[in-house]
Hints:
- With 164 residues, the protein is of the alpha+beta class.
- It has one helix at residues 3-27; strands spanning 29-36, 44-52, 57-63, 67-78, 81-87, 90-92, 97-100, 105-112, 121-129, 135-145.
- Strands 1, 2, 3, 4, 5, 6, 7, 8, 9 and 10 form a 10-stranded mixed beta sheet that branches.
- β1 and β2 form a beta hairpin.
- The N and C termini lie far apart (48 Å).
- Residues 10-25 and 149-164 have low confidence and may be disordered.
Amino acid sequence: xxxxxxxxxxxxxxAGLLCAGAALAQAVRAEGAWARATVPGQQATGAFMTxxxxxxxxxxxxSSPAAGVAEIHEMAMQGxxxxxxxLDAVALPAGQAVELRPSGRHLMLLDLKAPLKDGSTVPLTxxxxxxxxxxxxxxxxxxxxxxxxxxxxxxxxxxHDHKH
Length: 164
């Protein structure tokens, strides 16, 4: 086999992998996305949406130029205290809508570089992984809006395990 043939074959394989990754990112739908507006001095906020992956996938991370760190989090009651913890991933079962919502699983934007103002948008990149471990990205422009804090949030304990 000549070097030209090997090179062409490698190029076709790479192009196929890139197309497969792009198909995964296109296949995962993010609907109803929004991020909570902040007040001056607030260093963190949440982003929420409903994700649907027709072929199944996993949300394995997120990033935003508006935040120093973005993590997948989960809030849950432990006794009479709400605790929040970072998650490594969220499964997106084939064809099932998975809600990222306040007081549940959500994305945390930490170490904000500036306040997020109501009516603006924030860029957010979701990192997705298919069953074969191929990782892709889904780029979003997420609207920022005010929302009332959950009633149970008063007196809650953030049990953070941040990876800074």
